[in-house]
Amino acid sequence: MNRCVSCEETITNPLCPGCLTKGIGQWLKEKNILLDVTNPSSGSMDPCIKCGDFIDLCTYCFTKHVYEELKIAKVSRKVLEEYTLFFHFDLERLGYYKKAKEEGVIV
Ligand SMILES: [Zn+2]
Ligand SMILES: [Zn+2]
What we know:
By secondary structure, the chain is mainly α. It has one domain. It has helices at 17-20, 22-30, 59-72, 77-86, 96-102; strands at residues 2-3, 10-11. A hairpin with a 6-residue loop joins strand 1 (2-3) and strand 2 (10-11). The longest helix is centred in the middle third of the chain and has 14 residues, at 59-72. The radius of gyration is 14 Å and the shape is globular. The model has no long low-confidence stretch (mean pLDDT 82). The structure holds zinc ion (ZN) (2 copies). Residues 15-16, 18-19, 48, 50-51, 53 line the site of one zinc ion.
Protein backbone atom coordinates (compact mmCIF):
# COMPACT_ATOMS: atom_id res chain seq x y z
CA MET A 1 0.00 0.00 0.00
CA ASN A 2 1.30 3.41 -0.93
CA ARG A 3 1.56 6.26 1.46
CA CYS A 4 1.58 9.89 0.45
CA VAL A 5 5.16 11.14 0.86
CA SER A 6 3.84 14.51 1.93
CA CYS A 7 1.02 13.91 4.44
CA GLU A 8 1.54 10.17 5.06
CA GLU A 9 -2.07 9.31 4.37
CA THR A 10 -2.61 5.90 2.81
CA ILE A 11 -3.38 6.23 -0.87
CA THR A 12 -6.22 3.91 -1.74
CA ASN A 13 -6.77 5.09 -5.29
CA PRO A 14 -5.02 2.90 -7.89
CA LEU A 15 -4.61 5.89 -10.20
CA CYS A 16 -1.83 8.43 -9.92
CA PRO A 17 -2.83 12.03 -9.27
CA GLY A 18 -1.75 12.87 -12.80
CA CYS A 19 -4.45 10.58 -14.21
CA LEU A 20 -7.02 11.65 -11.65
CA THR A 21 -6.50 15.28 -12.42
CA LYS A 22 -6.01 15.00 -16.16
CA GLY A 23 -8.09 18.13 -16.56
CA ILE A 24 -5.35 20.18 -14.96
CA GLY A 25 -2.92 19.48 -17.79
CA GLN A 26 -5.60 20.38 -20.32
CA TRP A 27 -6.48 23.56 -18.47
CA LEU A 28 -2.82 24.63 -18.23
CA LYS A 29 -2.48 24.15 -21.97
CA GLU A 30 -5.51 26.33 -22.61
CA LYS A 31 -4.00 29.02 -20.42
CA ASN A 32 -0.64 28.67 -22.14
CA ILE A 33 1.05 27.93 -18.85
CA LEU A 34 4.10 25.77 -19.13
CA LEU A 35 4.22 23.78 -15.96
CA ASP A 36 5.45 20.33 -15.18
CA VAL A 37 2.54 18.64 -13.45
CA THR A 38 3.98 15.17 -13.30
CA ASN A 39 4.61 13.56 -9.95
CA PRO A 40 7.33 15.47 -8.14
CA SER A 41 9.01 12.36 -6.78
CA SER A 42 8.99 8.61 -7.24
CA GLY A 43 9.85 5.35 -5.56
CA SER A 44 6.51 4.02 -4.34
CA MET A 45 5.59 0.38 -4.48
CA ASP A 46 2.47 0.36 -6.61
CA PRO A 47 2.52 2.13 -9.94
CA CYS A 48 -0.60 3.71 -11.41
CA ILE A 49 -2.76 1.09 -13.13
CA LYS A 50 -3.35 3.46 -16.03
CA CYS A 51 -0.04 5.05 -16.93
CA GLY A 52 2.44 3.10 -14.80
CA ASP A 53 3.71 6.23 -13.12
CA PHE A 54 4.61 6.03 -9.45
CA ILE A 55 2.04 7.18 -6.96
CA ASP A 56 3.72 9.22 -4.26
CA LEU A 57 1.25 11.94 -3.51
CA CYS A 58 -2.40 11.84 -2.60
CA THR A 59 -4.68 13.91 -4.81
CA TYR A 60 -4.84 16.67 -2.25
CA CYS A 61 -1.07 17.04 -1.93
CA PHE A 62 -0.71 16.82 -5.69
CA THR A 63 -3.14 19.66 -6.38
CA LYS A 64 -1.49 21.64 -3.59
CA HIS A 65 1.85 21.05 -5.30
CA VAL A 66 0.46 22.37 -8.60
CA TYR A 67 -0.99 25.36 -6.78
CA GLU A 68 2.42 26.19 -5.31
CA GLU A 69 4.00 25.75 -8.74
CA LEU A 70 1.48 28.16 -10.23
CA LYS A 71 2.42 30.70 -7.61
CA ILE A 72 6.12 30.23 -8.33
CA ALA A 73 5.34 30.69 -12.03
CA LYS A 74 3.72 34.00 -11.04
CA VAL A 75 0.46 33.42 -12.82
CA SER A 76 -2.22 36.05 -12.41
CA ARG A 77 -4.65 36.03 -9.51
CA LYS A 78 -7.45 35.28 -11.91
CA VAL A 79 -5.71 32.09 -12.99
CA LEU A 80 -5.03 31.06 -9.39
CA GLU A 81 -8.63 31.68 -8.50
CA GLU A 82 -9.83 29.62 -11.42
CA TYR A 83 -7.54 26.79 -10.45
CA THR A 84 -8.85 26.62 -6.90
CA LEU A 85 -12.43 26.75 -8.13
CA PHE A 86 -12.04 24.18 -10.90
CA PHE A 87 -9.83 21.66 -9.15
CA HIS A 88 -11.03 21.86 -5.60
CA PHE A 89 -9.53 18.68 -4.28
CA ASP A 90 -9.00 20.54 -1.06
CA LEU A 91 -12.40 19.20 -0.12
CA GLU A 92 -12.57 20.46 3.41
CA ARG A 93 -11.11 23.74 2.28
CA LEU A 94 -8.72 23.86 5.19
CA GLY A 95 -5.50 23.64 3.22
CA TYR A 96 -4.40 25.75 0.29
CA TYR A 97 -7.94 26.91 -0.36
CA LYS A 98 -7.91 28.63 3.01
CA LYS A 99 -4.48 30.03 2.28
CA ALA A 100 -5.65 31.34 -1.09
CA LYS A 101 -8.49 33.09 0.70
CA GLU A 102 -6.13 34.63 3.21
CA GLU A 103 -3.90 35.82 0.41
CA GLY A 104 -6.88 37.37 -1.32
CA VAL A 105 -6.79 35.08 -4.35
CA ILE A 106 -10.36 34.03 -3.68
CA VAL A 107 -12.80 36.61 -2.48
ZN1 LIG B 1 -0.95 13.77 0.86
ZN1 LIG C 1 -1.40 7.53 -13.94
